[in-house]
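Cross-posting from the modeling subforum.

Setting up a comparison between two proteins and wanted a second pair of eyes on the formatting. Protein 1 (sequence, then structure tokens):
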Amino acid sequence: MSNSPVSNDSIAPSSPEPEVKRDQSNWILRSLKGPTQFLSFWAAIALPFVHLPLLTQGLGDPDVTLVFFLLLAANVFALYVGHGYKQE
């Protein structure tokens, strides 16, 4: 026993509350992962069919060109997010 003026008894143990919140947030992320990958996977398959009418119309109009590139970016993002769908 030490005679130090400061004892460790005054320090309360940390509450488990932050760990519970972390577990809940991890559970939410895990529960959203499957549906998000599912939607992204199928969006990546469907989006090229939306490109076809834009390409047949031609990309001469700046608005059509912008929409085409926005759809292309959305397709790349959907491919990235949905690439792990149904993989063990």
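Protein 2 (same layout):
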Amino acid sequence: MKPYRVILYYCYSPIEDTETYRDEHHLFCVQNNLLGRIIIAAEGLNGTVSGTPEDCQAYMDYVRSDERFKHVAFKVEEHDSIAFQKLHVRVKDEIVNSDLPVDPLKQTGKHLEPAEFKALLNDPDVVLVDMRSDYEHEVGKFKGAITFDMHNLRELPEHVNEIAHLKDKKIVTYCTGGIKCEKASAYLIDQGFQDVYQLHGGIIRYGLEEGGENFDGKCYVFDNRITVDVNKVNPTVISKCHICGTPSDRMVNCANAACNEHVPICEQCGWEMEGACSETCKAVPDKRIYDGTGYYVSKSNHYQPIQGLKSQKRNLIKMKLAQRASSVD
């Protein structure tokens, strides 16, 4: 058993006072030694958090102790170290950027549990549609899945006509943890697709519960692991080194911050190119220092834990946390 955990989750549930909840939520993470990225919006929560098993369990108990989030489904993975170097808890307009005119609380595709999804993989009437970004499905995707050349979910309306001829099929969408599919599947229904499903819990949960069969390559994740293994049954490598073309599933963010392309680069080329994706980027004098991982901690001047909280407000939040902890006990 590995000494740390990474937990991934989302929940669509209305939050009225996002700023206050952000402060409370952030302080809890600080008090419990948790690092990660958490997004709070009027529509709900989305986060990936890392820490010890005990601290992660405390966090899950804390989230579920709130009536609004008592049904949150957490994906829990073991890891050799904490998967983040910072903590960010931010208020945004959406918990996943999409700009799609849909509300998953009113309409979304039918949820398929991992076992149900696996049972449908050989159905000739089923079409798998990957709702992730191009650099994500470049390094890993389900066999036979349709992918779009899009960089984020906001571009989905530009590509939906690529599958318009499949409206009589069973459309099954999937993504990393399930959150993108809540809105993507709703949008497909809005566009006239009749039989729309989504993999509940995404690729990560499918790998944890069903062994990841028929997922080729690795799954791109948004922490310092960069990619994770999913398929324990019939794994394969589908991506090639961006520099030399040899098979490689080492994803690297280009060391040139102005470029920041996400591309597979083998270990040898990574060192030779100093983490850059091209000779042009390699020649940039102020590029980031490559340490062999291709993961860089972003500099941020956003809200920081504790800072900006007046003592009175901080004490009030601490009191709320204590009251909620006692109610859990």
